[in-house]
């Protein structure tokens, strides 16, 4: 090839290379259409609400990969850019330290902190661990799983999800006033679905032989409070906490005292501990999903469906009529 042709080829390759590089940075979430808003959510429940409320008006992405434990989230450089450029960010402070730090550093204009939308309930003292809060902090280790004195799992109460829905509709209306009516229409439909879910839980759990249930970790405090149940967590509020021998002995005693038939495992955590406890007591295991994310084992394709599966699991375990 002649020198002039080689020079022309090199010159043409530069913009092609730059274009390929730009496409691979992850600076914009894939699938954006012209005119669409971009909503970045911290993990699944907020993604679900945002998708329902925004509809086709927005591309909604989750910072937590499907099937991953949101507690362990580490953000990529591309995700930091996504947060800074998003039209709306929906997260919950105190749950994922990496997201808290990124939101503070990137300073997106429109942000919903769910911890400011719903009332977070305190963690019962016995759920911190046998030695109280100090042991709880030690069990949480260096992975950022210490949620302090409040239970972060507020999304498991359908009434809280209604408040989150209204907050998303309100903030999206501030971002795009021309679409405010459409956002509110979608929000109203989702609120109606959540009200029906709430009614299903209330009616389905109204008459049960037992109201106590045992879970691998104590993620279901809001559900228990809402429907007058008693949660007994093997490993406390942190999913990676190891129960002490004394705590395991307490679980054995409480299971026998309340006639518990089932030990509940989760979809995103190892079932080994719950299965071991169930084996020792001769009990069955079943899944109760904290809905921190969906994966191939999830008993439903969205929040509503998985919550319905949770209801049926609780009804069976509780001997509800």
From TrEMBL:
Residues 125-156 are annotated as: Disordered. SUPFAM superfamilies: Helical backbone' metal receptor. InterPro entries: Bact_metal-bind_prot9, Lipoprotein_PsaA-like, ZnuA-like. One of its GO terms (molecular function) is metal ion binding. It comes from the Bacteria. The keyword Iron does not apply. This is Zinc transport system substrate-binding protein. It comes from Auraticoccus monumenti. The lineage of its organism: Bacteria, Bacillati, Actinomycetota, Actinomycetes, Propionibacteriales.
């Amino acid at each position: 090839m002649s020198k002039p042709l080689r020079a022309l080829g090199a010159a043409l390759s530069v913009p092609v290379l730059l274009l390929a590089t730009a496409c691979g940075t992850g600076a914009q979430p894939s699938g954006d259409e012209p005119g669409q808003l971009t909503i970045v959510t911290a993990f699944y429940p907020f993604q679900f609400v945002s998708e329902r409320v925004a509809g086709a008006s927005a591309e909604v992405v989750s910072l937590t990969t499907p099937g991953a434990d949101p507690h362990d989230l580490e953000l990529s450089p591309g995700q930091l850019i996504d947060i800074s450029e998003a039209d709306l960010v929906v997260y919950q402070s105190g749950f994922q330290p990496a997201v808290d730090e990124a939101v503070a550093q990137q300073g997106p204009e429109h942000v919903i902190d769910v911890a400011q939308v719903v009332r977070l309930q305190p963690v019962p003292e016995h759920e911190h661990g046998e030695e109280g809060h100090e042991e709880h902090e030690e069990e949480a280790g260096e992975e950022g799983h210490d949620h302090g004195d409040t239970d972060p799992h507020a999304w498991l109460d359908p009434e809280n999800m209604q408040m989150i829905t209204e907050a998303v509709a309100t903030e999206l209306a501030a971002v795009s006033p021309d679409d405010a009516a459409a956002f509110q229409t979608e929000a109203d439909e989702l609120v109606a679905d959540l009200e029906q879910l709430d009614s299903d839980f209330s009616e389905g759990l109204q008459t049960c032989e037992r109201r106590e249930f045992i879970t691998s970790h104590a993620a279901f405090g809001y559900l228990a409070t809402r429907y007058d149940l008693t949660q007994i967590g093997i490993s406390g509020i942190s999913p990676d906490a190891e129960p002490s021998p004394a705590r395991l002995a307490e679980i054995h005693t409480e299971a026998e005292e309340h006639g518990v038939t089932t030990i509940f495992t989760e979809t995103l955590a190892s079932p080994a501990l719950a299965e071991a406890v169930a084996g020792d007591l001769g009990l069955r295991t079943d899944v109760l999903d904290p809905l921190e994310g969906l994966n191939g084992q999830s008993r439903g394709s969205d929040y509503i469906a998985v919550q319905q599966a949770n209801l049926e699991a609780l009804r069976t375990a509780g001997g509800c009529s």
